């Protein structure tokens, strides 16, 4: 056939085809009336009208700017249109007349995932499906009276349709068991039944032909549209897969069907009367739902709810059976009779879920869950309810508050917002109007009014991790649990904290929640470690186990009526069971993560009474009922109870006392009551003072060896000074200079610091003996203190320690010093063997007289207030006139013997001096000084911390000093100055110190922690401890040394026996020095300026060795086995070491060695050289001694306690060095003479830039690796060149550390020497076997290198000898070999080519030779066409058009494989043959196309997100738009798509089922990877908080 004829035939065929298309299109659109459609995309709702015209339909955008519109419907008579938005979790409606949509508003919110939507135009109700909660729900079209109709046996509901004239409701379910169900519109479970359950997979949509009483529905997986009657019978197919790509939404009118296609993103049309092929009408962007907007779709007929809403008070719902309707009530409300609903819910559960508070309605069987709209809920833990005012209370561990609000979320208020840390449990006394809470952070139980006022600590000691708490207001009892395993218990007390007892102590794990059965006097608790629920009488008797099955991790716990309710962390459930038998167990909520506290509530007003109910028991603040049917009026911490025991008054003065492990106050102006501050962890409080400026108290704890402080209510206790205190005794607060003074009788010192503990300075240390009690007069600039022991006196000095003088000699031990600031007199008490008295004198020590002897027996405290003096003898508190001791009165009996007593009076601290204003302008300490004469005002001086020098009002730190360390403290030592020679360094975290060093550049101390075998560091004054070298089994640091110039830390390891090097900033790995066989490095010091390293070797040959910092140029200084200490004199270039009972010295080359000190009885443990002096610690003499190093003279002993010193170092100010600025080295900087050069650690070599190090290449056992590389030399040289007395490496490293062999010896390649008779004796005498390597008995030996080759290497075509001598006489043989080689390669090549041809032929026949082929779908995920361009490829029939992401990524089985659930055989294949070249389809992908861009946004924290369906883990990707929307006439600029590139089902929800912060699926046992049975505190450790603080 000619080309012209062929062309004519093709043109005729094309014309014929187009003509048929036009005719078909016109015939399918033939109708007497236009058809109006409304359809939705994910973002908007649009409409268009079809007529007979072939013109492009005009599209209008009705609604825009939404996120994921999943369904639409309309109410034709009311001119309403409604739609659901899954991302916004709401349903919206607007007015719509067929042309214009306006007045849009949200009618229903807080829907987890609204999917399908249907309007009942008879009763004006709206029905929808919720695919998250798996519910069918109804409400009025105004959004009122929301009710759940069906909630059981629903997996993933989607489409929904109503038939109001029959009272029927239809919905589809694409879950694990796909189906279509029918039920009455009233939710009657008796009318519910499945009408389709076979040959169904993804029933995406359903629509009703009301006239013909038929149901049309489609399947997006099996690709068909079918029709059936209302009973599911007479089922037949309208369209099959030939006309469908991925149908999603369906609508019908007359004989015409319209549907959306998720894959093609188009609206399609089909007339099953004409039965022409389906037509694509319109293509939009991510088109979702479609509805035919016509009056014919909503014909009105008379119905049972038409008149007066059927007589129903709320909802009138149509039904399929007589009386054809039923009345219904909103969620959580019962139907009182057949018509009327109750006035509200009666029984509910209140649930704390971290970021939300939920209400669960118990009145209706669906147990509907509703979030309470609240703000700023971050980590809610506990919840309770006030049945009187109807407020819900909850605690939040993250925002650290207790808040309240009404049940509808209104009137949200803060109740407790200060000094609260982890309020794990709360309980309301609704009768007394008080709230109690247990705080795991402060280890206290507190009470306050429900309004938040009048707060008081009830229980403040003996608690570790209190959690559950419950109140029995009618009984006056308070119960709580403590889950800490050190002291697990359940306790009880009166509501005022009195009569505290432990009722359950043994066989407890983690008692998380407690609840009370008050009528039956029972207490219940849930144990999350023992996995059980128990109960007993309220005294702990008759203990019984109630439930021990399937209680995996109970937390929240409550009781109401006859049922117990609890939350389970692990199962993510809320359960209930009968309180007496544990039977009738029921699951209230399933798969809800983050279930915390729980409260079961009856909303009716309760009945109950106690003495606090009426008028708050006549108490002005707190009324606390007690079990003995009495009440106690109590006051908050800064108030006192008046003598009428009802009113609370503000006190101007009161007594503060210490009692070993207690601190408290006693009222002196009102009813004398002892109140403890409930401060935890007090071991032995010795002395106390206060600061009225900050309302803090300060005390010394002699057992903790610390000075502490806390607020007056006992909150926020913290250490002020905790380092270097031997036994802190007396303390005094300078309330004007804001300093604190203290005495230490063991170290014989008086010190001062800022109130926060900074700027510590020793004021008195020489000539002070056992200072005890101390008192200050900052107005006059004096301090007074008592001394015991050989001094027995009272002394006086200026507040900077100057002008010290003895004021009074005492007969016994003076203590309790106190000042009468008005009368200018000093009072104190003295204890003698049989006599005790209270004395007084003026402030110069004159006019001494006895004030009181009667009632004074071993007094322990003394205080003044106005005209009276107060003291304690034993546990009795006395008062008398301060002038002569008359009017003696016993005030009260205290609970214990106090250790100190002081009067708190804010008026005392109202005076002033120059330090009270801006700290006197001082940068650190402002210390008051007395004036020279009475007419002058008090002076002051600026002072610095010990060893700091004041220059221009700035404190300059010392640059040269020594540091010695004890096990837990480090002390700076600066001898020969006017200041105290010792100053404790503020370095936290020192424990079991073994060795120390100091970085003077950054003021960082490094030390070895001998307990954990790690190296740590800390900046001076910082609270942060850094881990430099972590501990491990193969690391045991022995000694450390710092190279301040190179910023390196050297440390020896007693396990690996090497010297390691770490960068001071620990930024990246460094390396180590090459270890020499048999060496065990231990002690180590560095000559920083000379770049030399000295270390002791305790290996095979104990010795002292010197090397460069990189370990090269090794020199033995001396050989000795008993070296105990090392030190370097960098000024005189000498090395000093202790050996035996002597100290030796030599120069750094090991020359001029001689004895410096020789003692017959000494044990020298530490050495250092500092400013020309040698210092050493002699443990036998317990002395720190020194002498001039150059002369060996001027030997002296320093008055320093050294019995526990573990290390001693010298610190010098860093000086300029050539390694700082002349050369930049990546690792080591060394000196060749005075010229710096770079070097590398072991395993690295220097690069050509002479500054950087690189990893040494693996030269193999036959090569030696040079430590430096250059362009002129190789980095690998033959091993035989090693130690051959020629420098073959550029740095000569091949000749380093080479032993010299004698004439009769053979030198092994590693440098060792053996006798020549051992060479070639078939025995490996060299470690490297080099003595047997060149023994050529049956081989060929290369003439120049002496390398021995096997006979097979001769004439093999390869030159194995360096000179090629093994191949010299092989030419003729070689030519034959080459010919044979060529033939062999030719034959092999031909065979390989033929094999390839055969394989290609078989593969083609297998993959492509089929009779039935289908066109490759335009699938962006296709493994054949990832970009969707290969349109001409043919696929074998049976290959699935859905290609999962999991297929392309790996070969693991899909999480959603239906066989995993149904038990289908792994070899079964429902999709055709399993053979072929393409991946098989996963059997059960989720019917969701994945999340769109909008769905990837974080969901609202207040929105409930239950545990998602397991099949949605591998959701497919979203549609990928790539073309123009042919229907778009709007001003939208979406990235539009003609084809969705991928055959994935449309979404049930815009969110991935796992797009949330939730737990993984609950495991079935504790061995699950999800659940770890660690202590279960819900209190978060830090923000943001986790589920556990363990």
Can you describe this structure in just a few lines?
5% of the residues lie in helices and 39% in strands.
> Strand order across the biggest sheet?
3-2-1-24
User: Class of the largest domain in CATH?
Assistant: Mainly Beta
CATH topology of the largest domain: Neuraminidase
First-last Cα distance = 88 Å
Quantity of strands, as a count: 118
Helical run tally: 5
Class based on secondary structure composition and strand pairing: mainly beta
Q: In percent terms, what proportion of residues is strand?
A: 35-45%
Largest sheet: 4 strands, antiparallel
Q: What is the 3D shape?
A: flat
Query: Which spans have pLDDT < 50 for at least 5 consecutive residues?
Result: 19-31, 1372-1377, 1405-1526, 1528-1590
Q: How is this structure best described in words?
A:
This protein folds into five domains: 31-328, Neuraminidase; 347-631, Neuraminidase, CATH 2.120.10.30; 656-951, Neuraminidase (6 Propeller); 960-1156 and 1205-1217, TolB, C-terminal domain (Neuraminidase), CATH 2.120.10.30; 1228-1297, Irregular (Low-density Lipoprotein Receptor). The chain contains five helices and 118 strands. The strands form 35 sheets. A four-stranded antiparallel sheet has the order 3-2-1-24, with no helix packed on it. Strand 48 and strand 49 form a beta hairpin. It is flat. The two termini are 88 Å apart. Residues 304-342, 611-649, 914-956, 1218-1254 form the EGF-like domain. Its main location: membrane. Residues 1462-1476, 1490-1504 have a biased composition (Low complexity). LDL-receptor class B repeats lie at residues 79-123, 124-166, 167-212, 390-432, 433-475, 476-520, 521-563, 695-737, 738-780, 824-868.
């Amino acid at each position: 056939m000619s080309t012209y004829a062929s062309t004519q035939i093709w043109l005729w065929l094309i014309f014929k085809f187009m003509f048929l298309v036009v005719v078909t299109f016109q015939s399918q659109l033939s109708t007497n009336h236009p058809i109006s459609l409304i359809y939705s995309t994910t973002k908007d709702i649009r409409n268009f009208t079809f007529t007979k015209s072939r013109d492009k339909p005009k599209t209008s955008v009705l609604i825009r700017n939404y996120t994921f519109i999943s369904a639409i419907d309309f109410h034709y008579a009311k001119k309403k249109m409604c739609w659901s938005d899954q991302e916004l979790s709401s349903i919206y409606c607007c007015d719509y007349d067929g042309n214009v949509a306006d007045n849009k508003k949200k009618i229903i919110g807080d829907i987890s995932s609204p999917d399908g939507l249907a309007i009942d135009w008879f009763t004006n109700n709206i029905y929808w499906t919720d695919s998250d909660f798996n519910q069918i729900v109804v409400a009025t079209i105004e959004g009122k009276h929301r009710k759940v109709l069906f909630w059981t046996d629903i997996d993933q509901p989607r489409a929904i349709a109503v038939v109001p004239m029959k009272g029927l409701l239809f919905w589809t379910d694409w879950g694990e068991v796909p189906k279509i169900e029918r039920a009455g519109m009233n939710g009657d479970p008796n009318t519910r039944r499945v009408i389709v359950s076979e040959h169904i997979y993804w029933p995406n949509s359903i629509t009703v032909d009301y006239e013909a009483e038929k149901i049309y529905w489609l399947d997006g997986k099996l690709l068909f549209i079918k029709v059936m009657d209302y009973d599911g019978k007479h089922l037949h197919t309208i369209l099959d897969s030939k006309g469908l790509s991925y149908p999603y939404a369906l609508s019908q009118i007359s004989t015409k069907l319209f549907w959306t296609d998720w894959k093609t993103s188009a609206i399609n049309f089909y007339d099953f009367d004409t039965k022409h092929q389906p037509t694509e009408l319109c293509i939009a962007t991510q088109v979702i739902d479609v509805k035919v907007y016509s009056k014919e779709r909503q014909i009105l007929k008379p119905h049972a709810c038409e008149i007066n809403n059927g007589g129903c008070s709320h909802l009138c719902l149509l039904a399929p059976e007589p009386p054809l309707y039923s009345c219904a009530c909103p969620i959580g409300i019962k139907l009182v009779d057949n018509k009327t609903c109750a006035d509200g819910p009666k029984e509910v559960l209140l649930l704390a879920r971290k970021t939300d508070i939920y209400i669960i309605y118990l009145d209706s069987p669906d147990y509907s869950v509703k979030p309470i709209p609240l703000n700023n809920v971050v980590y809610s833990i506990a919840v309770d309810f006030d049945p009187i005012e109807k407020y819900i209370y909850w605690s939040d561990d993250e925002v650290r508050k207790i808040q309240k609000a009404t049940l509808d979320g209104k009137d949200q208020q803060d109740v407790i917002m200060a000094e609260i840390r982890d309020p794990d449990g709360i309980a309301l006394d609704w009768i007394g109007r008080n709230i109690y809470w247990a705080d795991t952070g402060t280890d206290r139980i507190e009470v306050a009014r429900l309004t938040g006022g009048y707060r008081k600590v009830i229980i403040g000691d003996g608690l570790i991790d209190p959690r559950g708490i419950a109140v029995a207001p009618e009984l006056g009892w308070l119960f709580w649990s403590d889950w800490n395993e050190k002291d697990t218990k359940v306790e009880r007390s009166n509501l005022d904290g009195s009569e505290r007892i432990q009722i359950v102590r043994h066989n407890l794990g983690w008692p998380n929640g407690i609840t009370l059965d008050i009528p039956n006097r029972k207490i219940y608790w849930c144990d999350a470690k023992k996995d059980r629920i128990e109960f007993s009488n309220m005294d702990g008797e008759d203990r019984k186990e109630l439930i021990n099955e399937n209680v995996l991790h109970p937390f929240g716990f409550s009781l109401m009526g006859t049922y117990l309710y609890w939350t389970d962390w692990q199962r993510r459930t809320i359960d209930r069971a009968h309180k007496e038998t544990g039977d009738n167990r029921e699951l209230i909520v399933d798969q809800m993560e983050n279930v915390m506290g729980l409260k079961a509530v009856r909303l009716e007003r309760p009945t109950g009474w106690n003495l606090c109910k009426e008028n708050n028991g006549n108490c002005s603040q707190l009324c606390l009922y007690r079990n003995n049917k009495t009440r106690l009026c109590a006051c908050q911490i800064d108030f006192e109870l008046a003598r009428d025991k009802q009113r609370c008054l503000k006190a101007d003065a009161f007594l503060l006392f210490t009692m070993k492990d207690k601190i408290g106050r006693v009222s002196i102006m009102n009813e004398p009551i002892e109140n403890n501050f409930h401060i935890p962890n007090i071991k032995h409080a010795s002395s106390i003072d206060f600061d009225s400026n900050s309302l803090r108290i300060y005390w010394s704890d002699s057992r903790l060896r610390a000075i502490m402080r806390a607020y007056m209510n006992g909150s926020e206790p913290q250490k002020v000074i905790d380092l270097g205190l031997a036994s802190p005794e007396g303390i005094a607060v300078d309330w004007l200079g804001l300093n604190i003074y203290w005495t230490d009788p063991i170290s014989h010192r008086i010190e001062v610091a800022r109130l926060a503990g900074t700027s510590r300075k020793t004021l008195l240390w020489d000539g002070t003996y056992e200072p005890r009690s101390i008192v200050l007069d900052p107005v006059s600039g004096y301090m007074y203190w008592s001394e015991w022991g050989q001094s027995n006196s009272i002394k006086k000095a200026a507040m900077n320690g100057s002008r010290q003088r003895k004021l009074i000699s005492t007969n016994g031990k003076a203590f309790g010093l106190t000042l009468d600031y008005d009368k200018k007199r000093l009072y104190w008490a003295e204890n003698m063997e049989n006599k005790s008295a209270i004395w007084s004198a003026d402030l110069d020590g004159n006019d001494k007289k006895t004030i009181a002897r009667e009632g004074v027996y071993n007094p322990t405290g003394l205080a003044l207030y106005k005209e009276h003096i107060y003291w304690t003898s034993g546990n009795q508190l006395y008062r008398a006139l301060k002038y002569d001791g008359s009017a003696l009165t016993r005030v009260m009996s205290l609970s214990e013997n106090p250790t100190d007593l002081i009067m708190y009076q804010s008026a005392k601290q109202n005076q002033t001096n120059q330090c009270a204003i801006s700290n006197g302008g001082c940068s650190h300490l402002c210390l008051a000084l007395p004036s020279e004469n009475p007419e002058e005002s008090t002076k002051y001086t600026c002072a610095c911390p010990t060893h700091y020098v004041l220059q221009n009002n700035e404190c300059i730190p010392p640059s040269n000093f020594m540091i010695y360390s004890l096990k837990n403290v480090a002390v700076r030592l600066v001898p020969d100055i006017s200041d105290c020679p010792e100053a404790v360094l503020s370095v936290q975290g020192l424990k079991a110190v073994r060795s120390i060093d100091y970085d003077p550049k950054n003021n960082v101390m490094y030390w070895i922690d001998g307990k954990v075998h790690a190296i740590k560091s800390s900046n001076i004054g910082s609270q942060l401890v850094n881990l430099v070298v972590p501990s491990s089994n193969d690391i045991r640091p022995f000694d450390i040394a710092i190279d301040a110039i190179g910023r390196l830390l050297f440390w020896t390891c007693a396990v690996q026996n090497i010297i390691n090097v770490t960068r001071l900033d620990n930024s990246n790995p460094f390396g180590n020095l090459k270890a020499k066989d048999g060496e065990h490095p231990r002690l180590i010091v560095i000559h920083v300026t000379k770049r030399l390293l000295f270390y002791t070797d305790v290996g095979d040959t104990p010795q002292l060795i010197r090397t460069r910092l990189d370990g090269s140029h090794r020199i033995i200084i001396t050989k000795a086995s008993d070296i105990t200490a090392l030190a370097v004199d960098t000024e005189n270039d000498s090395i000093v070491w202790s050996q035996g009972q002597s100290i030796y010295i030599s120069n750094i080359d090991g020359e001029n060695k001689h004895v410096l000190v020789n003692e017959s009885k000494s044990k020298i443990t530490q050495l250092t050289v500092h400013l020309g002096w040698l210092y050493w610690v002699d443990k036998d003499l317990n002395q720190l001694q020194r002498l001039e190093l150059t002369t060996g003279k001027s030997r002296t002993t320093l008055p320093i306690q050294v019995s526990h010193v573990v290390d001693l170092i010298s610190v010098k100010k860093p000086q300029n060095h050539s390694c700082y600025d002349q050369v930049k080295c990546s690792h080591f900087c060394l000196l060749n003479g005075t010229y710096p050069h770079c070097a590398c650690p072991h395993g690295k070599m220097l690069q050509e830039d002479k500054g950087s190090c690189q990893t040494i290449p693996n030269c193999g056992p036959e090569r030696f690796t040079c430590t430096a590389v250059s362009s002129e030399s190789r980095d690998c040289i033959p091993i035989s060149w090693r130690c051959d007395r020629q420098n073959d490496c550029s740095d000569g490293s091949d000749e380093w550390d080479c032993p010299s062999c004698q004439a009769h010896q053979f030198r092994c390649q590693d440098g060792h020497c053996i006798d020549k008779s051992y060479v070639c004796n078939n025995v490996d005498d060299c470690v490297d076997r080099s003595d047997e390597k060149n023994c050529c008995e049956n081989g060929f030996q290369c003439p120049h290198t002496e390398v021995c080759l096997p006979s097979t290497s001769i004439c093999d075509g390869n030159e194995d000898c360096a000179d090629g001598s093994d191949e010299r006489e092989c030419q003729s043989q070689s030519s034959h070999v080459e010919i044979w080689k060529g033939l062999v390669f030719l034959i092999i090549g031909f065979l390989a080519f033929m094999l390839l041809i055969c394989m290609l032929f078989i593969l083609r026949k297998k993959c492509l030779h089929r009779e039935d082929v289908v066109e490759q779908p335009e699938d962006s995920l296709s493994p054949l066409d990832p970009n969707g361009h290969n349109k001409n490829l043919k696929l074998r029939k049976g290959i699935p058009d859905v290609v999962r992401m999991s297929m392309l990524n790996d070969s693991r089985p899909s999480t959603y494989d239906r066989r995993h659930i149904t038990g289908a055989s792994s070899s079964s294949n429902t999709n055709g043959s399993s053979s072929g070249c393409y991946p098989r389809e996963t059997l059960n992908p989720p019917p969701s196309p994945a999340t769109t861009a909008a769905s990837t946004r974080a969901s609202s924290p207040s929105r409930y997100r239950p545990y998602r369906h397991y099949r949605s883990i591998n959701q497919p990707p979203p549609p990928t738009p790539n073309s123009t929307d042919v229907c778009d006439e709007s001003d939208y600029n979406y990235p539009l798509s003609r084809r969705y590139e991928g055959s994935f089902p449309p979404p049930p929800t815009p969110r991935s089922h796992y797009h949330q912060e939730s737990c993984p699926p609950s495991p079935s046992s504790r061995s699950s990877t999800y659940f770890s049975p660690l202590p279960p505190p819900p209190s978060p450790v830090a923000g943001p908080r986790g589920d556990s603080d363990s």
